[in-house]
Amino acid sequence: MKISEIHIYQKDLPIVDGPYTMSTITLHSIDTTIVKILTDTGLTGWGEVTPLGPNYQPQHAMGARAAIAHMAPGLIGQSCLDHLLLRRHMDGLLDGHNYAKAAIDIATMDLVGKHHGVRVCDLLGGAVSERLPAYYAVGIGSPTDTANIAVDKIKQGYNRLQFKIGGRDISTDIEVMQKVWETVGHKVQLVADANRGLTAAQAKQFSVGCRNIPLVMEQPCNTMEEVKSIRSQVCHPLAIDENLESVHDVLRAISMDVADAFGLKITRLGGINAMVTVRDICEARRIPHSMEDTWGGDIVSAAILHVSATVKPELLESVWTSGNYIDEHYDPDNGIAVDGGYFEVPKGVGLGVTPDEGRIGQLVASYS
Ligand code: 0XW
Ligand code: MG
Questions:
Q1: CA distance 270 to 102
Q2: DSSP letters of 144-170?
């Protein structure tokens, strides 16, 4: 089975009940890139990558499309049954740019699953879970509004809630978390995610101010070195997320003993197969981790669920997709969204989603 055509689409994803506010960015709509790969056997595979705006991390939507456009001519005629050889071929065409390569990797695995008549998770060692715990991410807000959202999300069945902090007076973040704790307390796992927005001093101040709350501090500071510097001075477990841009970074984080858990984003790491490598490293070192991505629609969301289905349950902290923040599913019959606090792993072969081509935005480039 060889690649015969590659088509690149662009679509804006308006944020339902937006804007989505984090320590460093506020977003109203997010630009996604969808890749459609056709093969000489008549199969179609789908991939997607959705950077979270141009300054969340060193990735951006136009950069993804430019990277894919650069590689596409060199991918025509390549076998898509050999994902490792294809990734090495992509590395020979373009150094780095894991996030752009992820869209190709996801489409490739969709095709391999369809070729063999199995789901993607069945290609990754097998699903141990068909129902996956979801978490909800609550944007920056006031103490009362945030606590009210927490109450509502717990009623919807979530048992893990992430609260964005940073980008304002740290005492306000402490006030928000104390209000949430007072309102919902022991009913749910609590995470405070600064998305790199705190200084080491602010992170220590936040931990002291919330020492009565059993929360996880996620990516408090900008670099692994800063997170490492506070690790022995805070009274909360630490998770890192944005610092993990590659398998190398995961190995470096482990060698530095920088955190207690990881937040893993599938496209940032390089796609399904890179995420599986990190899954196995985390299993070997018994490191709990969440499975997620920056943003995106049903295609990347399905990819997240298929890898998540194979994670050892005791290490799977939770799963996040943007399915509940977007206003339209690509696949009207198998859209990916949380139901009662859980995701169901797609049942169809490949990714298990079939985008309606009227819902995937505009065609911006084609290669054959
Ligand atoms: C909550 N998320 C998975 C959604 C946004 O991409 C940010 C991210 C996070 O955990 O930082
Ligand atoms: Mg995070």
A1: 4
A2: HHHHHHHHHHHHTT-SEEEEE--SS-H
Strands 26-27 and 20-21: antiparallel
Using omega within 30 degrees of 0 as the cis cutoff, is the peptide bond preceding 19 cis?
Answer: yes
pTM of the model: 0.97
DSSP type of residue 325: T
Please give the DSSP secondary-structure letter assigned to residue 319. E
Beta carbon of 292 within 6 Å of any ligand 1 atom: yes
Contacts of 106 (CB under 8 A, 6+ apart): 35, 46, 47, 48, 266, 267, 271, 272, 299, 300, 303, 351
Residues 82 and 179 in one domain: no
Is residue 54 located within the same domain as residue 74?
Answer: yes
So which residues are the catalytic ones? 164, 265
Percent of the residues in the chain that have a pLDDT greater than 90, as a whole number: 97
Hey, which residues does 366 pair with through a beta bridge?
7
- Is the predicted pLDDT of residue 72 greater than 90, yes or no? yes
From ligand 2's centre to the CA of 219, what distance in Å? 7
User: pLDDT tens across 148-184, in order?
Assistant: 999 999 999 999 999 999 999 999 999 999 999 999 9
Check pocket membership of 263 for ligand 1, CB cut-off 6 A.
yes
- Please tell me the distance from the alpha carbon of residue 10 to that of residue 30, in angstroms, as a whole number: 11
- Per the listing, tokens 């320590």 go with 23
Atom index in ligand 1 nearest the CA of residue 295 equals 6
Mark whether 215 and 147 lie in a shared domain. Answer: yes
Residues 196 and 23: beta-carbon distance below 8 Å: yes
Q: Which residues surround ligand 2, an ion (CB under 5 A)?
A: 193, 218, 241, 263
Residue nearest to atom 7 of ligand 1 (CA): 294
Based on the domain organization, do 337 and 360 belong to the same domain? no
